[in-house]
Structures are given as structure tokens and as C-alpha cells.
Design a protein that fits this description.
about 260 residues, alpha+beta, 6-stranded antiparallel beta barrel
Length: about 260
């Protein structure tokens, strides 16, 4: 009789775990659906080029639906535009994708963030979460365009955890491993970034890192600036990814044009 009760309890526990997992998976699916319309590609448009749109990074919509956040290095790479070439975003999906011109309103070089403005009808905006409540081990997700135009205009979502909350720069083991970027960062006030165990790619730069349950953004993927500071001694770059905490996005949104 005791074994029967024990077996029944075990089955009940398994059933509860299955129900929880199913509900969590369903919740995450809904979150991804809600987030994707707010995630845009950042690039340039030139009518005489084939393809006309070239995108090199990711951004996401916040605030009034016309404000776009991305990495500074994503738009800085487009600072020397050719004749008839326009910086902007690509929104929508597949054959219905639309290029919308953008203006760079503010840049935070220290944290590698940029704020853009688009015109037209507002797009769905993502809410900003509280990065102070982020803890190591918590689940995260990010959505963007991993390899830019190489994979076409298709959103891709990755999942993982915050594996560490770590300083953005650390002293090299010896002076031979110091380069100008590391030295410049060491002279500034230290700040922490989120180290993630999910693999991001260069096209993911500017992707929103969000809570799988709510879609609230807690960070911004950075695949050039931070990696260059933290992994200069690694011959073969690791699968580690980094994100700038979203509190610096909040500061950038307050910055005057």
C-alpha cells in the first residue's frame, strides 16, 4: 500500500513538472511573438546598389515607438555614407519588409550605445526592465539578426542565462597584452556588464536582451566593443556573449539631442 502511495506521489510530481514546463514554454513562445515586431535591422539604403538595403546590426524600439536603440559602433560604421545612401532601419518581415530612414540623435561612446529617431507610424515599443535586479543564473533571451544580410531578413532568438556580472575591462596579465582600447577603458570609472552563456554573432550587436517571461529589456548585446576589451588575449574567440545593462539606455534616453 505504501508503494502505491509513493508511486502516486511520484507521478503527481512528474505531472506537475510537465505542466510547469509546458506553461513556461507556451509563455516564452508568446513573449517571442510579442518582441519580434519591436526588433529592427540597422543599415543603409542605396537605390543603385544590389541589394539596395545593407544591414550590419540590430536595434529595438522603445518609448514613443519612433525611438531606436542600437550599438554606437553599428551606426558609426555608417558615418561615411556614399552619395544617395541613407542610414535607417528595416522593419516588418520577409517580403513585406520596409526601409525607414533614421537620424542619429545621441551617442554614448563609453557604453557603445546610440539613439536613433524614425518618422511615420509608431512601431510597438519594448519596456525597459530593472538591471539592478538581474542576478547570475537567471534565464535570458535575445532576438536579432545574427549574421546580418547573410541569413536574410529573418529574426532569430537565442536563449541562455546570465553566467556572470563582470567588469567591462580587466588588467592584462602583462604589459605586452595592453592595447590602446584597454588602457583607455582602465582609466575610466569601472562598470559591469552581463556575461551570457548564449552565443551571439556580429549582426546581433544592438539586440535587446530580455526576460523570457515578460519581454522586459535588461541589456543590449555588444559583440565588438566589449569583446575587444575582454578577449584581446584569446586567439580563437569564445562563445561567450556580453550585454550592456539597460540603465545606460535609460540615461541615453534622457540625453538632449
Amino acid at each position: 500500500m505504501k508503494n502505491i502511495f509513493r508511486n502516486a506521489s511520484f507521478v503527481a510530481i512528474l505531472s506537475g513538472l510537465f505542466t510547469f514546463s509546458y506553461c513556461y514554454a507556451e509563455e516564452f513562445i508568446n513573449t517571442v511573438k510579442a518582441v519580434k515586431p519591436s526588433v529592427v535591422a540597422i543599415g543603409t539604403f542605396k537605390k543603385t546598389r544590389s541589394p539596395a538595403v545593407s544591414f550590419t546590426g540590430t536595434g529595438f524600439i522603445v518609448g514613443d515607438g519612433l525611438t531606436v536603440i542600437t550599438n554606437a559602433h553599428v551606426v558609426n560604421g555608417n558615418s561615411s555614407l556614399e552619395v544617395d545612401e541613407t542610414i535607417g532601419i528595416l522593419t516588418g518581415k520577409d517580403d513585406t519588409a520596409e526601409f525607414r530612414p533614421a537620424v542619429v540623435l545621441a551617442v554614448d561612446e563609453e557604453h557603445d550605445l546610440a539613439r536613433l529617431k524614425i518618422s511615420g507610424n509608431p512601431l510597438p515599443a519594448l519596456a525597459l526592465g530593472n538591471p539592478d535586479k538581474v542576478t547570475e543564473g537567471q534565464p535570458i533571451a535575445f532576438t536579432g539578426f545574427p549574421l546580418g544580410a547573410a541569413l536574410g531578413f529573418h529574426h532569430a532568438t537565442h536563449r541562455g542565462i546570465v553566467s556572470s556580472i563582470t567588469p567591462v575591462a580587466r588588467p592584462a596579465q602583462d604589459s605586452r597584452r595592453l592595447d590602446p582600447k584597454v588602457i583607455a577603458q582602465l582609466r575610466k570609472a569601472a562598470y559591469s556588464v552581463f556575461q551570457l552563456d548564449a552565443t551571439a554573432y556580429p549582426g546581433n550587436s544592438g539586440s535587446p536582451v530580455y526576460e523570457p517571461e515578460t519581454g522586459a529589456v535588461i541589456g543590449v548585446i555588444n559583440m565588438v566593443f566589449v569583446k575587444g576589451l575582454k578577449e584581446t588575449a584569446i586567439t580563437n574567440p569564445s562563445g561567450i556573449s556580453y550585454a550592456i545593462p539597460v540603465n545606460y539606455v535609460s540615461d541615453l534616453l534622457k540625453k538632449k539631442n
